[in-house]
Every structure is written in C-alpha cells, then in structure tokens.
C-alpha cells in the first residue's frame, strides 16, 4: 500500500482552541486508519501582516516558504477554520495570502494536495459561514476541495478529555470527511 501524507492545521492559535482540537481529532482519526497524519500549529510559523511593499523590500518570510513546502509535500490537507464575523480568521487568511506568494518549484502547495475543511464553534451553526469563504479562497488558489466538510456546533461540549468527539453524529461527519479526503488523495495520486 502506498504511503499517504496528510497535514492537519487550524486557523487559530488560541489556547484551548476548538478548531485546533478538531484538527487534532482529524489527525488522530487519520492515524487510526494507518495514514501518516501530521498536526501542526500556525503558532510555530509566525508571519507578518501581508504587505506587498514589505515583500518587495524584504523578500518572502522564511515561514511562508516553509509552509508552502510543507503543504506541497503532503497528499491532503485538513484545515479547521474558526468563524470570525461570518468569515475565516485574519490569521488563516494572512497565512494563505503569504503561501500564495511563494513561487512553486515543483509541487504546488495548492494544486498538489487535496483539501478538506471543517469548523468548530460555540454557536449552533458550527462555523459554517467561515467554511464558504475558506472554500472560495482555496478554489481561487487552484485547490481541489472535497465537498464533504465538518461543522461542529456547541463546540464547548463537543470534545471529551481525550480530544474525541462526544456526539455520534459529529463523529460520523468526521469519519466521512476523513474517508473522502483519503479516497480523493489516493485517486489523484494514482493518476499522477
């Protein structure tokens, strides 16, 4: 069986972030199925606020280049996006903007991996509005984003002490999203 590498991250660095918990739960689910899954925190890749003048004067930040290469090295990426004012976080948007500026030297960070998205929120909508914007941005960057996604409402009660989802419905959505991400990544890798 081929080895598939999947990357999981969250658009939040907040302490006890529900979305980092969701990204961790996805990484755990993928690992349980034998997939090589890696969970990263954007806190480990700080970036300045995107400014084209700074890019011209100082060049690309090292962390933008590192993240671009990291995405391109994986067959699939899961992004958990919090919802801020009915959209994605400034942190996530800024990160995607910087990565999009890195010239591709082989595998493209948006065209190579397959993307899946999810959100966890204390509200009842579960961050659904952020996912529409995130999907739109990723597609504009040339990414393939699977239709299956996961949205966790009332996130304060959604995870147990081990980081697993407490609700059967939410766990089923996570399993479906993980399965479709792996299937799509496998199919596209076999065509390459």
UniProtKB/TrEMBL annotation:
List GO molecular-function terms, semicolon-separated: FMN binding; oxidoreductase activity
Q: Name one Pfam family in it.
A: FMN_red
What's an example GO cellular component term for this entry?
cytosol
Q: Which InterPro entries match?
A: Flavoprotein-like_sf, FMN_Rdtase-like_dom, NAD(P)H-dep_reductase
The NADPH-dependent FMN reductase-like domain is annotated at 5-155
Which PANTHER family does this chain map to? CHROMATE REDUCTASE (PTHR30543), NAD(P)H-DEPENDENT FMN REDUCTASE LOT6 (PTHR30543:SF21)
What is this protein called in UniProt? NADPH-dependent FMN reductase
Please give the organism. Cohaesibacter celericrescens
Source species taxonomy: Bacteria, Pseudomonadati, Pseudomonadota, Alphaproteobacteria, Hyphomicrobiales
